[in-house]
Amino acid sequence: QNCFVCGESGATITCQGTDCDRSFHFPCAVEGECVTQYLSQYSSFCPEHRPEQQVEAAPEEDTTCPICLEPVGDRKSYGTPVSRSLRASHLHLVFLLQGQAACAGIFCFQCPLCRNRETFLAEMLLVGIRVPIR
Predict the structure, then answer these.
(1) PHD-type domain: which residues (predicted)?
(2) Domains located in the chain, CATH noted
(3) Residue 42: phi, psi to the nearest 5?
(4) What is the rounded distance in angstroms from the CA atom of residue 83 to the CA atom of residue 119?
(5) Cβ atoms within 10 A of the Cβ of 27, count?
(6) Contacts 24+ apart (CB under 8 A), 83-88
(7) How far apart are CA 24 and CA 15, in angstroms?
(8) String of DSSP letters for the chain
(9) Which phi and psi angles does 102 have, rounded to 5°?
(10) pTM score above 0.70
(11) How far apart are the C-alpha atoms of 22 and 15, rounded to whole Å?
């Protein structure tokens, strides 16, 4: 299979979307804005079929990430999931939250601002944050 992100052969991950035949390499998934859910059964989705958070609030024009204080843009996107427990606080996905999840593990991973665990964990698993069990 050819990777729809880089075009090279050897892509082994296939989108789980209905009637979708897109394949990609695992390292290309982040670049291609694909989502891999690390639940009991791993599921991967291309950008067209990835699960979206059901939130109405888009970030305001000058919104910054509450963790690193960098601007997050003025629209909802793959890179800025919303923490429902924070009532529309937008957080950076790939580097900040994934790094925090890898260090904390499933029993300590929590919202960095309000420290909510249950709701925050469920939302982050939906958008593809891998939280190791330790």
Answers:
(1) 1-50
(2) 1-51 (3.30.40.10), 53-133 (no CATH)
(3) -65, 135
(4) 8
(5) 11
(6) 83/111, 83/113, 83/114, 83/116, 83/120, 83/123, 84/53, 84/55, 84/119, 84/123, 85/111, 85/114, 85/116, 85/119, 85/120, 85/123, 86/111, 86/113, 86/114, 88/55, 88/57, 88/59
(7) 8
(8) -BBTTT--B---EE--STT---EE-HHHHHHTT-EEE-SSS-EEE-TTT-------PPPPTT-B-TTT--B--SS-BTTB-EEGGGTSEE--IIIIIHHHHHHH-TTT---TTT---HHHHHHHHHTT------
(9) -65, -35
(10) no
(11) 6
Q: Name the nearest CA neighbour of 128 among 46, 6, 57.
A: 46
> For residue 87, which phi and psi values (nearest 5 degrees)?
55, 65
59 burial via Cβ count (<10 Å: 0-12, 13-18, 19+)? buried
